[in-house]
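INFO worker-7 received task bundle
INFO bundle size: 2
INFO processing item 0
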Amino acid sequence: MEEARLPLFSGTVGPKVFRHLNAANKAIDESGLPVATQNLVKLRASQINGCGFCTDMHSKDAAAAGETQLRLNLVAAWRDATVFTEPERAALEVAEQGTRIADGASGVTDEAWSRAAKHYDEEQLAALVALIALINAYNRVNVIARNPAGGYEPGQFG
């Protein structure tokens, strides 16, 4: 695949929609939810959704923010990896269940939510929920448009 089927960053609708999505992302960035957790959640949801463009972006952004290659390599297998903190594991569990809603009748389980609530306050939990919803929206847009992966440079979108 060489180019996207739809130029999302040109025209009038695409840029306007992305401005709003990016404004929501800025609110999450400023929420107090740890940046490392945000990066892990974005990466894991992007992997689950098969979004190569977002997986490329979020793995590179995480590395640029100081994330280790070992942890990036193990995000998809976080349950079996010893390199993640309990709060990160709780956030990843909620992210997976929130991303795979169609796979489970109840969405995010009470048990997963309780584990996350032990580590994050209400503002951080609100940011986590918003982040999961937002990254799933970005994933879907990029998968549908078939934005190719591999060419992203950290900080490319500001």
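INFO item 0 finished
INFO processing item 1
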Amino acid sequence: MAGKFEVYTDKANKFRFRLKASNGQIVASSEAYDTKAAAKNGCEAVQRAADGAEIVETES
């Protein structure tokens, strides 16, 4: 099974999403959005940005 995005309401009644791996582990979580539609748009933006994204190492 592939990972999945979950859109949920936080304690402040804002919408957020989290990306879960197939094993259920949360691998990313979002900022707060005012609307559910905006949170879903955020999910779609991450999907588009990640498609073919390269891994780049940086020094800290």
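INFO item 1 finished
INFO post-check item 1: The longest strand covers residues 4-9.
INFO post-check item 1: The chain has one domain: 4-50.
INFO worker-7 idle
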